[in-house]
Amino acid sequence: MEGIFTFFGLISHNHTFIFVTHMLLAAILAIVVAKLATKSLKVVPTGCQNVVEAYLEGVLAMGRDVIGESYAKRYLPLVATLGLFIFMANIIGIIPGFESPSGNINFTLALALIVFIYYNFEGIRKNGVVHYFAHFAGPVKILAPLMFPIEIVSHISRIISLSFRLFGNIKGDDLFLWVLLMLAPWIVPLPGFALLLFSAFLQTFIFMILTYVYLAGAVLLHEESL
Predict the structure, then answer these.
(1) What confidence category does residue 225 fall into, taking pLDDT thresholds of 50, 70 and 90?
(2) Is residue 3 assigned to a domain?
(3) What residues contact 198, with CB distance under 8 A and at least 6 apart?
(4) How far is CA 149 from CA 80, 142, 146, 163, in A?
(5) What's the angle, vertex CA 201, arms to CA 117 and CA 79, rounded to 5?
(6) pLDDT, tens digit, for every residue of 132-141?
(7) Among 101, 124, 127, 160, whose Cα sits 20 to 30 Å from the Cα of 175?
């Protein structure tokens, strides 16, 4: 956001530079957490390994409820990586002097496109091109000319839904924090920080579970037809 102090803004006021540096910072933080968790693996986990294992178990449990055990494990690396990266991107904006890269539409749009391309690729790989796109026509053949374009628009709208939901909420959180710090810069904003932390968790969770939902819709066509 222009006009708001950031530490990287001391180097350059170029907004693209500030956005890219914060995005790289979020990526570095995610990599550091992963490295710390796997640096010295133990049978009885402690410290960072314990936290990351609990996180992965939670992601796996989420996927198990949506897409089943085997597929949840298959797509765990994608969903868990997205979740960790998005959470780091959300959380750094809560710290004064930093900006959330997820408050930039370019960031959220890129992640949404990754999910969109990947779940369609998995759907085609699993079911074949003909069967996958035939599903778009619906169960009633006479309505296929109507249903097919509606389904295409529906799938494309998922890009907008994923990207704008995350962008809008985090951008709103950033503005809320900005106003809060301007009005009361010391003790009073602390409850606001707790609310922003909850929002960072919530938006990450929503993005992850929607990724699983879209993957389930793409790869489980044979089960829907039974």
Answers:
(1) very low
(2) no
(3) none
(4) 32, 14, 6, 22
(5) 30
(6) 988 888 777 7
(7) 160
